[in-house]
Amino acid sequence: MAQPGWGLLFLGLLAMAHGLPRGNDLLNVCMDAKHHKIQPGPEDDLHRQCSPWKKNACCTANTSIAAHEDASPLYRFNYNHCGTMGPACKRHFVQDTCLYECSPNLGPWIRPVFSSWRRERVLNVPLCKEDCNQWWEDCRTSYTCKENWHKGWNWTSGINKCPVEAACHPFPFYFPTPASLCENVWSHSYSASSFGRGSGKCIQMWFDPAQGNPNEAVAKYYAFASAPGIFSWGASFPFLALTLLLLLWG
């Protein structure tokens, strides 16, 4: 049985290596989620804060309009769950939504997820320190009742409301630092990067489209830096497991 076992191992290695994500596969892509297009492309009519992505977007014009609305039809999420959110704070959450819905440059951080409303999400996108710091600074006087906004809400009314046991406090009560806001509010969709804008190593929520989209170069940097080689641990673990099984079988 040894020779057939090694033959199967070789075929298994080839098949698994062929399926590994390559650098180019992580570039210019849309995640498989609730409102995303299948492929990115031009969208001339993107609304206000989403307009920087109009040359190449994963969102439609209708999605971009809804991203600016309170308790929008996108997710029925109510930012005013502890009184009216300050406009300076709200604009960061709108920009966050635009980045999530519209950007084709999040491929290196897309991960599969088992959910009723999406098959993929982003995880640990390195958000530039200026974006994270300003988000926190502009939200310091607004109120919330939770640190993880992905779960734990009362949805009985059709929009999110604070759980009975959750008290409203200024943002710094639940988010004492900029990093805690950026990383915890959407269950680690972002990581607070130590790199700043222009470094080529962090994603910008805010950018001037007249100067081009800096996130294209950032995605390329991480796509090729993180694309697993056949002998990297993450990629080789399945190979090692298959080897062990076939050796035992043989």
UniProtKB/TrEMBL annotation:
Keywords: Disulfide bond, Membrane, Signal, Transmembrane, Transmembrane helix. Residues 1-19 form the signal peptide. GO terms for molecular function: signaling receptor activity. The chain crosses the membrane at residues 230-249. One of its GO terms (cellular component) is external side of plasma membrane. Pfam families: Folate_rec. One of its GO terms (biological process) is cell adhesion. Residues 29-204 form the Folate receptor-like domain. Belongs to the folate receptor family. PANTHER family: FOLATE RECEPTOR, FOLATE RECEPTOR 1-RELATED. This is Folate receptor alpha-like.
